[in-house]
Design goal:
Structural class of chain A: mainly alpha
Helix content of chain A: over 70%
Order of helices and strands of chain B: HHHHHHHHH
Distance between the termini of chain A: 43 Å
Structural class of chain B: mainly alpha
Number of helices of chain A: 9
Number of helices of chain B: 9
Shape of chain A: globular
Oligomer: heterodimer
Radius of gyration of chain A: 20 Å
Number of domains of chain B: 1
Strand content of chain B: under 5%
Order of helices and strands of chain A: HHHHHHHHH
Distance between the termini of chain B: 43 Å
Largest sheet of chain A: none
Shape of chain B: elongated
Chain lengths: 249, 188
């Protein structure tokens, strides 16, 4: 097998060029799918026979919650790559992804609270799933604070990679919290192996929302990473070339 | 302070006792975390430890054990007094001591990671708590859960087993993270 693509992935310049090409597509796909999913989910999907219209918040709650967790797993994978192979781009990914992940975790908690009010009768309970999501939010905050405290980029990279890997213990706790403890939060809506319990008119818009939010995440991530690459590689020739081109045009 | 702040009602105190003692243990350990590696870092002996032929894993484990024996053990020994003041029934006090015995080393071990990550920073204090507190929530939940189960007369075996697992796992894994963080900290 040809492994050169792996080396290329680690090169900031190559990644920069790739993300310039791909980012508009992801942005277009994300906005397009999110629009379809939102309109379909909020206006056309059938009402839930028990919860009425309030269940529609699932179309925002579930995609953000899925992304909040998988964003952390991606960060953990890249922290491992960064520690083992010392790739510069891995740390740039962590820097770029952490605030987005924190924002999605907050959104998931917020929409969950808004959903909890009409269905459970309370904004917040100290349920296992809710508590572990709150812990995830604090992990993101702790990571961002730790990053900000270091002046040296290499040290900050190592410290945050270690912290990300330590925090991974929380992810299985979130995932299985609804199965280990019988608490208020319902079990997972989607699994890869089984058919969803909802009719297709209900879960199709949800699936579209999930894919759309991943595409949106990728496009935001790409622009944040490009920014990070430009700042860190500002001394290299190719970055200077780009900046000079912009100046002239 | 807690009975004065909330309510001195004995029946309320006895239900809250386990949680209060546990949170006190957590915060007391948190206060002393800052200094776990700080003085060694300042006078340069931390660099000697990293350069030492002994595996850093064991040295870190020894540092953490010393930290625990200076913060955790006094707390365990004091906990009967605290629990009596909080009106916890005397038959549950041994259970409280066992959970503290299993749980406070975990707090020191996880705290060691936070202390090692921030040792080279000038303003570490708040940061350590922000990093460490979320990770100690499982210990807190099971520690107080055990005593709650004991008060309600439920079997304790499962709870104690989970606390033992948490202790075993953090004993094996957390010194690796602390050692890596210390190497990073002295590299500047």
């Amino acid at each position: 097998m040809n492994w050169t693509f792996f080396h290329k992935l680690g090169s900031p310049k190559w990644f920069y060029d790739l993300s310039v090409k791909l980012q508009p597509w992801f942005l277009f796909l994300g906005v397009f799918l999110l629009l379809i999913g939102t309109v379909w989910g909020l206006a056309f999907a059938p009402e839930d026979y028990q919860q009425g219209n309030s269940f529609r918040i699932i179309y925002i709650h579930v995609p953000t919650a899925i992304l909040a967790q998988s964003c952390y797993m991606m960060m953990a994978a890249s922290a491992f790559v960064g520690l083992v192979w010392k790739m510069k781009i891995a740390d740039m990914f962590i820097v770029a992804a952490a605030p987005i992940g924190a924002a999605f975790t907050f959104l998931a908690l917020f929409t969950g609270a808004v959903w909890g009010k009409p269905t459970w009768g309370t904004w917040w309970v100290w349920d296992a799933r809710l508590t572990s999501m709150l812990v995830l939010l604090f992990l993101y905050f702790g990571l961002m604070a730790l990053r900000g405290a270091f002046e040296d980029t290499d040290m900050a990279a190592k410290a945050s990679a270690i912290l990300v890997l330590v925090g991974v213990v929380n992810i299985p706790i979130i995932k299985y919290s609804v199965e280990w403890w019988n608490t208020l939060h319902q079990p997972a809506t989607f699994t890869l192996t089984e058919k969803p319990a909802m009719p297709p008119e209900m879960w199709l818009p949800l699936l579209i929302m999930v894919i759309g939010i991943y595409a949106f995440f990728t496009s935001v991530l790409f622009s944040r990473m490009r920014n990070e690459i430009l700042i860190r590689e500002r001394r290299t020739k190719w970055v200077r070339g780009i900046v000079l081109e912009e100046d002239q045009s | 302070m807690f009975p004065l702040g909330v309510s001195p009602d004995p029946s309320f105190l006895s239900t809250a006792a386990a949680g209060v003692v546990w949170v006190a243990a957590l915060l007391a350990t948190m206060l002393s975390l800052d200094r776990m590696f700080k003085s060694d870092f300042d006078d340069g002996s931390l660099e000697q430890l990293v350069l030492c032929q002994q595996p850093l894993y064991l040295l870190v484990l020894a540092k953490i054990f010393v930290h625990w024996s200076l913060t955790g053990i006094p707390l365990i020994l004091l906990s009967p007094v605290l629990a009596t003041m909080m009106n916890l029934n005397s038959e549950h006090i041994p259970i409280l001591m066992i959970t503290l015995f299993l749980g406070t080393p975990v707090i020191s071990l996880i705290g060691g990671i936070g202390a090692a990550l921030t040792v080279s920073l000038r303003t570490g204090g708040v940061l350590v708590s922000l990093i460490v507190l979320p990770l100690t929530i499982p210990v807190l939940i099971f520690g107080t859960g055990t005593i709650q189960a004991s008060v309600e007369g439920l079997p304790l075996g499962g709870y104690l087993a989970i606390m033992g697992v948490i202790l075993g796992l953090s004993l094996m894994l957390s010194p690796f993270a602390s050692a890596a963080a210390l190497k990073m900290s002295v590299s500047s």
